[in-house]
Amino acid sequence: MSPSSEPRRVAVLGLGLMGGSLARALKALPDPPVVLGHDALPERAEAALAAGAVDEAKADPDEAVGLAEVVVYATPLTATLDLMGRHRQRWRDDALLMDVASLKAPVMNRAGALGILDRWIGAHPMVGGEGSGFEASRADLFAAGHVWLVGVGGRRGHRVESEGRGLLAAARCGCRLDRRGKP
Fold it and tell me: Would 183 be classed as within a structural domain?
């Protein structure tokens, strides 16, 4: 990501292994963005705040999404699908939207139905750990693997691809792109 396009606020919804690790990686940057975090389990969000992985722990995910240049859904598939519909009118017009769900077709279908494929990236991290939850997250989780980016397209596809790759590169993720838009 070029310095002029670096997001200054990133909302991470879901602070388990994937979301918590992304938040930690972003906060470990020399000039980190403000990370707004939310988790359905308030104690998980408070743990992320106490660990310095997020700058603000939001009790309501709706509060975070309207403030962020990048919104990352690191929630279970059903929660991601629900939140996407709920947040449709709350995202900034220029926001980059991303998910890390393991199943891409339902999320990409929902993004298409909402008319947001031109700013949505389906990210599929090929990493993991032995544990789960925020306590298992770590800033270097993504450095050990690759993240497949799927569904990049539409009018703003090149900008979305560039910004998505930049965000993930900042978190030390290697990215591979499936230009067919298929998981």
Answer: no
Pick from 169, 170, 172: nearest CA to 141: 172
Number of separate domains in the chain: 1
Tally the residues of the chain.
183
Task: Find the CATH number of the domain harbouring 43.
Answer: 3.40.50.720
Q: Residue 72 gets which letter from DSSP? A: E
Q: Which band of pLDDT confidence, cut at 50, 70 and 90, is reported for residue 163? A: low
**Please, are residues 129 and 65 in contact by the beta-carbon 8 Å criterion?**
no
Beta strand extents in 5-87 (DSSP E only) = 9-13, 34-38, 56-57, 70-73
Q: Which residues pair with 176 in a beta bridge?
A: 148
* 101, 73 Cβ separation under 8 angstroms: yes
Residue 84 CB coordination number (10 Å): 21
Q: Tell me, what's the pLDDT at 169?
A: 60
Task: Tell whether 106 is covered by a domain.
Answer: yes
Separation CA 82–CA 173 (nearest Å): 27
The confidence score (pLDDT) of residue 170 equals: 58
Angle at alpha carbon of residue 181, lines to 73 and 105, rounded to 5°: 55
Rg, Å, the chain Cα set:
14
Residue 173's pLDDT is: 56
